[in-house]
Design goal:
The complex is a heterodimer of chains A (136) and B (123).
Chain A lengths: L3 E6 L3 E2 L4 E10 L5 E11 L4 E13 L7 E7 L8 E2 L4 E11 L5 E9 L22
Parallel strand pairs in A: 2-9
Antiparallel strand pairs in A: 1-3, 3-6, 4-5, 4-8, 7-8, 8-9
Chain B lengths: L1 E4 L3 E3 L3 E7 L10 E16 L5 E17 L5 E7 L8 E2 L3 E11 L9 E8 L1
Parallel strand pairs in B: 2-9
Antiparallel strand pairs in B: 1-3, 3-6, 4-5, 4-8, 7-8, 8-9
The chains are: A mainly beta (136), B mainly beta (123).
């Protein structure tokens, strides 16, 4: 039997460099070989999907019992980009709890919001000047 | 003709100031527009008649803003606002967003730019 999970987060919105922390609660026991959680940045076009960043944390090895809970902490990169949805694609962050099983693995996925990094107040641009201009 | 900018990059919601220089030899009667354009490139799977598939990259304009300029003025500054909800610069594997500043002749068919450069828009 496949286990079920409840992915509990203290909040849904994060800034670059933040630790994404929470708990995976087993709501239904199952025959799992291993449990892990991954934080991924997804890049999606109409027909393709890439994962430029993938950070995983092992949570448990062996069968899972109802009521088990596992804390996790995965850090966003300091230069993490926010999500964006365009006419033809999407950038987004997702947490993926995966139970490795003999048959089809069980996943519990949740998107999280990453906000744009704050920037310091504008200082004079020491490197200012014309650049990159093409001419005719 | 040349266009440049004082800043190397801007954030969404900021103003982007362009400096346009029209040198001697600009033909009278020409009409010119200057602006910003964000090009979205995205990969799709194309099927051909022999049932094979291939990966192709398509383009679309995610954002553009233009203003017509007086070609008789040698030096002029132009200001554009990057919308806060516009894409930021991103170069991925199957999806990318590229921001360009361009000067183009105004013509019935979309002409190639006579001056342009790529700049960065940060989130």
């Amino acid at each position: 039997m496949s286990p079920s999970f409840d992915l509990q987060l203290g909040r849904e919105s994060f800034a670059p460099g933040d630790a994404v922390t929470g708990t995976v609660l087993v709501t239904e026991e199952g025959d799992s070989r291993a449990l892990e959680i991954a934080l991924r940045f997804h890049e999606k076009s109409p027909d393709y999907e890439e994962v430029p960043l993938n950070r995983a944390q092992a949570l448990h090895t062996g069968p899972l019992e109802t009521g088990h809970s596992f804390d996790f902490s995965l850090e966003l990169p300091p230069d993490a980009l926010p999500g964006y949805t365009s006419a033809h694609g999407e950038l987004y962050w997702e947490l993926d709890v995966k139970s490795d099983e003999a048959g089809r693995d069980t996943h519990e996925r949740r998107r999280i919001e990453v906000v744009a990094a704050a920037e310091p107040t504008t200082e004079p641009d020491l490197f200012g000047g014309d650049f990159g201009g093409a001419e005719s | 003709m040349a266009i440049g900018a004082a800043a190397h990059g801007v954030r969404r919601g900021d103003n982007m100031r362009l400096d346009l220089t029209v040198r001697n030899g600009a033909r009278a009667g020409k009409r010119l527009r200057v602006g910003l354009v964000c090009i979205e490139r995205y990969d799709v799977e194309e099927s051909s008649s022999d049932s094979s598939t291939s990966r192709e990259t398509r383009e679309d304009i995610a954002h553009e803003e233009w203003t017509e300029v007086d070609i008789g003025v040698a030096q002029q500054g132009l200001s554009f606002t990057i919308p806060p909800d516009a894409p930021f610069s991103y170069r991925g594997t199957c999806l990318s967003f590229e921001w360009r500043a361009e000067a183009c002749e105004i013509a019935r068919l979309r002409p190639d730019p006579v001056a342009s450069f790529v700049f960065e828009v940060r989130p």
